[in-house]
Amino acid sequence: MAQIELGVSFWAFCAFAILLLSTTQSLDSDWMWFSLSGEPLAPEGAQSGRTASSQGLTGCPTCGLVNRLSPQGKTHCRRCDERLHARMPHSLQRTWALLAAATVMYLPANLYPIMTTTSLGHSTPSTIIGGVVELIQMGSWPIAAVIFTASVIVPVGKLVALIWLCLVVKRSDELNAGTRTRLYRLTEFIGRWSMVDVFVVAILVA
User: Fold this and answer.
1) I need a labelling partner for 169 at 20 to 30 A (CA). Which of 8, 83, 122, 175 fits?
2) Which residues in the chain show pLDDT less than 50?
3) Whole-angstrom Cα distance, residue 78 to residue 85?
Protein backbone atom coordinates (compact mmCIF):
# COMPACT_ATOMS: atom_id res chain seq x y z
CA MET A 1 0.00 0.00 0.00
CA ALA A 2 1.27 3.46 -0.86
CA GLN A 3 2.06 5.90 1.93
CA ILE A 4 1.86 9.66 1.56
CA GLU A 5 4.24 11.79 3.61
CA LEU A 6 4.40 15.56 3.73
CA GLY A 7 7.84 16.73 2.65
CA VAL A 8 9.54 20.09 2.97
CA SER A 9 8.28 21.20 -0.45
CA PHE A 10 4.64 20.78 0.67
CA TRP A 11 5.07 23.26 3.52
CA ALA A 12 7.16 25.51 1.28
CA PHE A 13 4.30 25.56 -1.24
CA CYS A 14 1.81 26.41 1.54
CA ALA A 15 4.03 29.31 2.62
CA PHE A 16 4.32 30.44 -1.01
CA ALA A 17 0.51 30.39 -1.44
CA ILE A 18 0.00 32.42 1.75
CA LEU A 19 2.66 34.98 0.80
CA LEU A 20 1.27 35.28 -2.75
CA LEU A 21 -2.23 35.83 -1.38
CA SER A 22 -0.93 38.44 1.08
CA THR A 23 0.84 40.21 -1.78
CA THR A 24 -2.28 40.43 -3.93
CA GLN A 25 -4.36 41.60 -0.98
CA SER A 26 -1.91 44.32 0.07
CA LEU A 27 -1.32 45.70 -3.44
CA ASP A 28 -2.87 49.13 -3.97
CA SER A 29 -4.39 48.84 -7.45
CA ASP A 30 -5.05 52.59 -7.68
CA TRP A 31 -1.37 53.33 -7.00
CA MET A 32 -0.36 50.77 -9.62
CA TRP A 33 -2.58 52.30 -12.32
CA PHE A 34 -1.49 55.83 -11.39
CA SER A 35 2.14 54.73 -11.75
CA LEU A 36 1.47 53.14 -15.14
CA SER A 37 -0.66 55.82 -16.79
CA GLY A 38 -0.82 58.79 -14.43
CA GLU A 39 -3.77 60.10 -12.44
CA PRO A 40 -6.76 60.44 -14.79
CA LEU A 41 -9.16 63.33 -15.09
CA ALA A 42 -12.85 62.96 -14.32
CA PRO A 43 -15.15 62.50 -17.33
CA GLU A 44 -16.24 65.78 -18.87
CA GLY A 45 -19.51 67.03 -17.40
CA ALA A 46 -19.46 64.74 -14.34
CA GLN A 47 -21.22 66.32 -11.36
CA SER A 48 -20.93 65.53 -7.68
CA GLY A 49 -24.08 64.82 -5.70
CA ARG A 50 -25.67 62.78 -8.49
CA THR A 51 -25.51 59.05 -9.10
CA ALA A 52 -23.23 57.71 -11.81
CA SER A 53 -26.07 55.91 -13.60
CA SER A 54 -28.11 59.10 -13.92
CA GLN A 55 -25.14 60.75 -15.65
CA GLY A 56 -24.36 57.81 -17.92
CA LEU A 57 -21.17 56.94 -16.05
CA THR A 58 -19.80 53.59 -14.94
CA GLY A 59 -16.67 52.27 -13.29
CA CYS A 60 -14.28 49.92 -15.08
CA PRO A 61 -14.31 46.45 -13.46
CA THR A 62 -10.59 46.02 -14.21
CA CYS A 63 -8.90 49.30 -13.29
CA GLY A 64 -11.74 51.18 -11.55
CA LEU A 65 -11.61 54.25 -13.78
CA VAL A 66 -14.91 56.11 -14.19
CA ASN A 67 -15.97 56.31 -17.84
CA ARG A 68 -18.89 57.76 -19.74
CA LEU A 69 -21.02 55.16 -21.50
CA SER A 70 -21.58 55.62 -25.20
CA PRO A 71 -25.23 55.89 -26.29
CA GLN A 72 -24.38 53.71 -29.29
CA GLY A 73 -23.77 50.72 -27.04
CA LYS A 74 -20.17 49.45 -27.03
CA THR A 75 -17.84 51.40 -24.74
CA HIS A 76 -14.27 50.60 -23.77
CA CYS A 77 -12.29 51.91 -20.82
CA ARG A 78 -10.07 54.83 -21.81
CA ARG A 79 -7.27 53.50 -19.60
CA CYS A 80 -7.17 49.69 -19.95
CA ASP A 81 -9.56 49.14 -22.93
CA GLU A 82 -11.85 46.82 -20.93
CA ARG A 83 -15.37 46.55 -22.36
CA LEU A 84 -17.88 48.47 -20.23
CA HIS A 85 -21.61 48.22 -19.59
CA ALA A 86 -23.99 49.67 -17.03
CA ARG A 87 -24.98 46.15 -16.01
CA MET A 88 -24.82 42.77 -17.68
CA PRO A 89 -28.10 42.02 -19.50
CA HIS A 90 -30.17 39.29 -17.83
CA SER A 91 -27.40 38.76 -15.27
CA LEU A 92 -29.77 37.50 -12.56
CA GLN A 93 -31.42 34.99 -14.90
CA ARG A 94 -28.01 33.74 -16.05
CA THR A 95 -26.85 33.38 -12.46
CA TRP A 96 -29.95 31.36 -11.52
CA ALA A 97 -29.44 29.09 -14.54
CA LEU A 98 -25.79 28.46 -13.66
CA LEU A 99 -26.64 27.90 -9.99
CA ALA A 100 -29.31 25.36 -10.92
CA ALA A 101 -26.88 23.53 -13.20
CA ALA A 102 -24.15 23.60 -10.55
CA THR A 103 -26.51 22.23 -7.89
CA VAL A 104 -27.67 19.42 -10.17
CA MET A 105 -24.12 18.45 -11.14
CA TYR A 106 -22.68 18.70 -7.63
CA LEU A 107 -24.13 15.42 -6.34
CA PRO A 108 -22.96 13.16 -9.20
CA ALA A 109 -19.60 14.94 -9.16
CA ASN A 110 -19.05 13.77 -5.58
CA LEU A 111 -20.92 10.45 -5.62
CA TYR A 112 -19.57 9.00 -8.87
CA PRO A 113 -15.93 7.96 -9.32
CA ILE A 114 -13.58 10.73 -10.29
CA MET A 115 -11.19 8.18 -11.75
CA THR A 116 -10.65 4.43 -12.10
CA THR A 117 -7.24 2.91 -11.45
CA THR A 118 -6.45 -0.37 -13.22
CA SER A 119 -3.57 -2.49 -11.92
CA LEU A 120 -2.87 -6.09 -12.92
CA GLY A 121 -6.32 -6.34 -14.49
CA HIS A 122 -8.09 -5.13 -11.34
CA SER A 123 -10.00 -1.84 -11.62
CA THR A 124 -10.57 0.31 -8.54
CA PRO A 125 -12.95 3.30 -8.81
CA SER A 126 -12.26 6.27 -6.54
CA THR A 127 -14.62 9.07 -5.51
CA ILE A 128 -13.58 12.34 -3.92
CA ILE A 129 -15.18 11.43 -0.59
CA GLY A 130 -13.70 7.94 -0.80
CA GLY A 131 -10.27 9.47 -1.33
CA VAL A 132 -10.72 11.68 1.73
CA VAL A 133 -11.73 8.69 3.86
CA GLU A 134 -8.78 6.68 2.58
CA LEU A 135 -6.36 9.49 3.38
CA ILE A 136 -7.76 9.73 6.91
CA GLN A 137 -7.32 6.00 7.39
CA MET A 138 -3.72 6.34 6.21
CA GLY A 139 -3.12 9.12 8.73
CA SER A 140 -2.74 11.90 6.15
CA TRP A 141 -5.06 14.28 7.98
CA PRO A 142 -3.71 17.57 6.55
CA ILE A 143 -4.13 16.46 2.93
CA ALA A 144 -7.56 15.00 3.68
CA ALA A 145 -8.62 18.28 5.30
CA VAL A 146 -7.45 20.30 2.29
CA ILE A 147 -9.29 18.07 -0.18
CA PHE A 148 -12.48 17.96 1.92
CA THR A 149 -12.47 21.74 2.33
CA ALA A 150 -11.88 22.42 -1.37
CA SER A 151 -14.23 19.69 -2.64
CA VAL A 152 -17.14 19.91 -0.19
CA ILE A 153 -17.12 22.94 2.11
CA VAL A 154 -16.10 25.60 -0.44
CA PRO A 155 -18.53 24.56 -3.24
CA VAL A 156 -21.47 24.15 -0.85
CA GLY A 157 -20.67 27.47 0.82
CA LYS A 158 -20.51 29.24 -2.54
CA LEU A 159 -23.80 27.73 -3.71
CA VAL A 160 -25.62 28.67 -0.49
CA ALA A 161 -24.19 32.21 -0.45
CA LEU A 162 -24.97 32.90 -4.12
CA ILE A 163 -28.49 31.46 -3.87
CA TRP A 164 -29.18 33.63 -0.83
CA LEU A 165 -27.77 36.73 -2.55
CA CYS A 166 -29.96 36.09 -5.61
CA LEU A 167 -33.02 35.78 -3.39
CA VAL A 168 -32.44 39.06 -1.54
CA VAL A 169 -30.94 41.10 -4.39
CA LYS A 170 -34.19 43.06 -4.86
CA ARG A 171 -35.13 43.19 -1.18
CA SER A 172 -33.76 45.92 1.05
CA ASP A 173 -35.22 44.61 4.31
CA GLU A 174 -32.91 41.58 4.68
CA LEU A 175 -29.43 43.10 4.91
CA ASN A 176 -27.97 46.43 3.94
CA ALA A 177 -26.02 46.78 0.73
CA GLY A 178 -22.67 46.88 2.53
CA THR A 179 -23.22 43.52 4.22
CA ARG A 180 -24.34 41.90 0.98
CA THR A 181 -21.31 43.32 -0.82
CA ARG A 182 -18.97 41.93 1.83
CA LEU A 183 -20.62 38.51 1.57
CA TYR A 184 -20.22 38.54 -2.21
CA ARG A 185 -16.55 39.53 -1.95
CA LEU A 186 -15.99 36.78 0.62
CA THR A 187 -17.62 34.27 -1.74
CA GLU A 188 -15.43 35.48 -4.59
CA PHE A 189 -12.34 35.23 -2.37
CA ILE A 190 -12.89 31.64 -1.20
CA GLY A 191 -13.82 30.64 -4.74
CA ARG A 192 -10.19 31.09 -5.76
CA TRP A 193 -9.31 28.00 -3.72
CA SER A 194 -11.72 25.76 -5.63
CA MET A 195 -8.99 24.85 -8.11
CA VAL A 196 -7.32 22.78 -5.38
CA ASP A 197 -9.57 19.98 -6.69
CA VAL A 198 -7.16 19.61 -9.59
CA PHE A 199 -4.63 18.10 -7.17
CA VAL A 200 -7.09 15.47 -5.95
CA VAL A 201 -6.37 13.17 -8.89
CA ALA A 202 -2.61 13.44 -8.39
CA ILE A 203 -2.92 12.66 -4.68
CA LEU A 204 -5.23 9.69 -5.25
CA VAL A 205 -2.92 8.32 -7.95
CA ALA A 206 -0.01 8.52 -5.53
Assistant:
1) 83
2) none
3) 13
